[in-house]
Design a protein that fits this description.
32% helix; alpha/beta; single chain; 14 strands; seven-stranded mixed β-sheet; 2 domains
Length: 288
């Protein structure tokens, strides 16, 4: 851990900010590090990257990568000694994505009666439902549900488990989630219990875990991770899907869309839909 909690902020034009985000994703040291990118000022084309390193090494690497881009103004701010995660989550408003309404315990009294209400507590896991990638996945899934239900769903990189739980709450009898982070798996299991679903979650690297293979092939695979692992897992995701199955991919910037799309189209996938939220993209693909 860092001796003092810090937040690293970089501001600049969209193209430069997106290129910097791609560079951050390519850094091994920053794999799994927490950052966000969003539009701060539309009129003046100002985009902002907020990074929250947890070690001195991550902090130094964030500054080194972001400072390497001309046009980005990089600053660091010390954060007071406080439970910033808990404070931030308590102030997050609920999110509506199609039929899904995602909220924390502090907003449970505001849940509508005509939506699929998901109580998701993030803790130290990614996926409160507020991020553009998660919203994009839920919007894509909501549209697909208007035509059919999915018997078997796999969520790769489940985080809080929100996507697998959403599937279980909308009629999927077998919903399996995986994550490489043990804390995320624990949190997703707790969220599944809170939402009274039988979604299963396992600690796994890749898709070869027995608990994943025993239910294959799947009708639908979520993978809300990062562009590089999406490309790396393209063949494995194809193998986990039945012919005609659907993959909903996200965690990638718009500037990374072509690279990810090419990796899957070369394996026989067809693009069904693209969803853009802020700087992020979600892809809906059908296995040929």
């Amino acid at each position: 851990m860092t001796d003092t909690a810090v937040q690293i902020i970089a501001r600049g034009p969209r193209k430069i900010a997106e290129a910097a985000a791609v560079a951050v994703d390519a850094e091994v040291i920053l794999e799994g590090a927490t950052y966000s990118i969003l539009e701060e000022d539309e009129d003046h084309d100002v985009w902002r990257i907020d990074a929250f390193p947890t070690t001195d090494e991550e902090a130094e690497q964030f500054v080194a990568v972001l400072s390497g881009f001309d046009g980005l103004k990089v600053t660091s701010e010390k954060l007071a000694d406080a439970d910033w995660l808990a404070m931030a989550l308590s102030g997050l408003p609920p999110v509506r994505a199609g039929r899904f309404f995602i909220h924390g315990v502090h907003d449970r009294g505001r849940a509508p009666v005509n939506t699929v209400n998901l109580r998701i507590e993030a803790g130290a896991a990614f996926g409160t439902g507020h991020h553009g990638t998660t919203v994009g996945c839920l919007l894509a899934y909501d549209t697909l549900l208007k035509a059919k239900r999915f018997e078997r769903v796999l969520d790769v990189g489940a985080g809080t488990g929100v996507l697998a739980i959403a599937a279980a709450r909308t009629g999927t009898p077998i919903a399996v989630g995986t994550d490489i982070d043990r804390i995320s798996v624990r949190i997703s299991k707790e969220n599944a219990k809170v939402n009274k679903t039988r979604a299963r979650f396992v600690h796994a690297f890749g898709l070869s875990h027995r608990a994943v293979r025993q239910y294959a092939p799947y009708d639908l695979v979520f993978a809300n991770i990062l562009a590089r692992p999406l490309v790396f897992l393209a063949q494995d995701i194809k193998g986990a899907l039945k012919p005609g199955g659907i993959a909903i991919l996200s965690g990638l910037l718009r500037s990374q869309e072509r690279q990810v799309r090419a990796a899957y189209q070369s394996r026989g996938f067809k693009v069904v839909r693209r969803i853009h939220r802020d700087a992020w993209c979600a892809l809906v693909l059908k296995r040929g």
